[in-house]
Design goal:
The protein has 105 residues and is an all-alpha fold. The chain is built from 4 helices and no strands. The longest helix is centred in the middle third of the chain and has 32 residues.
């Protein structure tokens, strides 16, 4: 039995590595899952980049060198909750999507 132990050990190592090559985290059979995750991450990146660009524009208009009176007035009304008595205020609610359902899709 002693001469077969290295052969059995080597065979088990090859089987283990073969199973990992097929079904492991970076295995051949998990490519679709990685592609779906990549698409999800790219979509999240695009949304975040768009939000960042919008925020950078707002910050640029609120700096003292490029102060926009309209932007300042809008932000003051939003933050303080005030409006001109002649304004018509239409309050809307936005539907929020729970983070768990976004991650599951």
């Amino acid at each position: 039995m002693k001469p077969y132990l290295p052969t059995i050990g080597l065979f088990l190592l090859i089987v283990y590595l073969g199973v990992q090559a097929l079904t492991g985290q970076r295995g051949l059979l998990s490519g679709n899952q990685r592609d779906a995750m990549l698409e999800l991450r790219e979509h999240e990146l695009a949304v975040l980049a768009e939000q960042r660009h919008d925020l950078e524009l707002r910050v640029r208009y609120l700096r003292s060198g490029h102060l926009s009176r309209d932007m300042l007035e809008e932000r003051a009304r939003v933050v303080l909750g005030f409006s001109d008595p002649r304004d018509y205020v239409i309050r809307t609610t936005t539907a929020t999507v729970p983070q768990a359902s976004v991650a599951a899709s």
